[in-house]
User: Fold this.
Amino acid sequence: MYGEEPLFGLLNRLGRPAPNHRPWPRHVTDRAGWRLMIEHLGQNNWSLLGLWGDRDADGLTVHAALREDLSGDVGLVSLPCPDGRFPSLSAVRPATIRLERAACDLFGLTAEGITDPRPWLDHGHWGLRHPLAQTPSFSTPPTAPYPFLKSEGHGLHQIPVGPVHAGIIEPGHFRFTANGETVARLEERLGYVHKGVEGLTRGKPLLEATRIIARLSGDSTVAHAIAFARAVESALNLDIPPRAVWLRALMAELERLANHVGDIGAICNDAAFAFMLAELSQLREAVLRAADACFGHRLMMDCVIPGGVFPDIAETGPKRLLDLTIELRRRFAPLVVIYDNKASLQDRTVSTGIVNTGLVNRFGAGGHVGRASGRGLDARKSPGYAPYNDLEFEVPVLTEGDVNARVWIRIREVEQSLSLVEQIVRRMPGVPRGPDGITPPPLLPLDHILDHAKAGGGGEGMALVESFRGEILTWARIADDGTVERCHPRDPSWFQWPLLEAAIEGNIVADFPLCNKSFNCSYSGHDL
Assistant:
């Protein structure tokens, strides 16, 4: 609860609470308080949920979001940076390294003592340096190549892969240092699909900003839209129609189903077992067609908006989804048996690409990457959000941390999502009807939302939503005219990409596609 030790007790000592920040408190501190927070992070197992830069009328600020995992308590700490500098958290939370580099690229915020100060998102081709700072400066293309880590040692050689890859996957560069076929080190370079999302949303009306966020990572469009909508609704202290809450969860579980069954097939295909890809692609297609029949879009893009959902599920949708769950159960279970009994497939996935529990905890990785390595956190459970507190489901956890474990986490989550779809369809509130017989959509009128913004003077809100990859964090500041002053979406991939570097170490180069697909991190979601 609020005010209890240790997390909220620390926040109360760090500084004053910021007004109109919901649903969790945000405390503004000074450099001494920031260093005290770093000291406590080194002594506790709190999760770092995110770190990002900010700019308002008072200048630059850096924010850090923390969670006490045992209680589920969440809080934010903010440090004004009038000189554009702040003490780095990288020594106690290595996941902040890339976040701090991104804050420097976008805002010009310098993390003092950061272990890796190289640019991250900025490849030198934007034409601007620090585009979100108070006074961006013009830049010219770099004259020197990106300084990859040096490789020294007898028999070592480097293998550059990407950023252009075979097929239609997104761009990313992977620099392998190998001894023969064995990978000694992998270094990633991302940022090739930076879209300027944080700058694009600034000043936008809510519906325009929602469309931008929904396209941050197309395979997670529902989850990112829910996170943004919940952050806005928290900022403006809005209560949306109960039916909309349940419909959002229904769409989120359909999205989880489609991605997990597709990923399981793709992993098997990278181990040269194309049969599973063919069969599971049919199941994924069945989910996408059902989503289209129910909500008018295969990916359900733009169906979740601040204030609710639009459109409502089609009249025939509930029966279509119940029939879908029966069909998927009938066809999915035999494929699981085939996967488990195929010795040549197990030879490729078992003991390949291991990530240990200590690493996933240090990096705060969630989703199938974290749960396959013993970190069983799920935003639907902790801190939790409606309607999942009224639904029965389990969060599968394994400890082996290999490709096989990541496959099995997906298998168990498919089973749980099928159950959740059935529960939601059977238990969600019915369709309300007005006195004139007209059925209103499960959505607050835009005028009502804008009136709330004006009456409350705007506000700040944050949301944690469980996507198929893991926890999405979205933080937003809404002005009193209902426009977005600032929005920061943090995709789960930020905390998973670094662990792929650890997973491939000691494996052969040929196993990288298998490891990479078992993670299935988002390039676009990460690159903002």
